[in-house]
Amino acid sequence: MLSSKKSFVEPILNPLVKPLSRVNPNTLTILGSIPPILFFVFMIYHLYFWGLLALILTGVDMLDGMIARRYHKVTAFGGFLDSTIDRIADFLLITAFAFAGIVRWEIVAPLLLFAYLTSYVRSRGELANPKVSFAMGVIERPERIILIALTLLLYIFFPTSNFVGFNIAGSTFIFITLLSIYTVLQRTHHAYKNL
User: Fold this and answer.
1) Cα–Cα distance between 58 and 34 in angstroms, integer?
2) Whole-angstrom Cα distance, residue 82 to residue 70?
3) φ, ψ (nearest 5 deg) of residue 167
4) pLDDT over 90 percentage in the chain
5) Are 93 and 148 in contact (CB under 8 A)?
6) Residues 23-44: pLDDT tens digits?
7) Whole-model pTM?
8) So what's the pLDDT on residue 59?
9) 127: closest CA among 170, 174, 80?
10) Which residues are catalytic?
11) Beta partners for 166?
12) CA distances (Å), 98 to each of 60, 106, 156, 169, in order?
């Protein structure tokens, strides 16, 4: 959903792009792995406000792609590296809640699976037919990260709240999982129609 809003978000990040024009986008991709690592560490040590700040900083992940496109530095390896780092970041952002003891593993594991499947189905579909875009569905990576940030924010302010037997973070994770399952089904149906 938010993929279609890049034209709105990118002008906001433009002031950061020009000073970084000489930096190799792959270097920025690797540096972009630092906020998710910090988030993971802060969560384990229950430093939730610092974790929220690190999570917000994961938004700079867009800069490498913007610089690569604007300054004609797009490479196949750059796309591969970016996607690989994103999967590592997804693991850190999602499992941090289980390692911190906030959300049970039986809730975290399905979300991790369907988060990965959301990306895999898109990648596999576009590999099968590069002319068909699979950047669709109710929840893509940007929405998932925003909802994870909202989950942490709600947990910070309402740590003892319960909803149908789960704390607020667990309930939100179940909701994100359901959206992710639906997205996988949407993309699979899209593949059936277009491949």
Assistant:
1) 8
2) 17
3) -70, 170
4) 71
5) yes
6) 888 888 999 999 999 999 999 9
7) 0.90
8) 79
9) 80
10) 86
11) 163
12) 25, 9, 15, 10
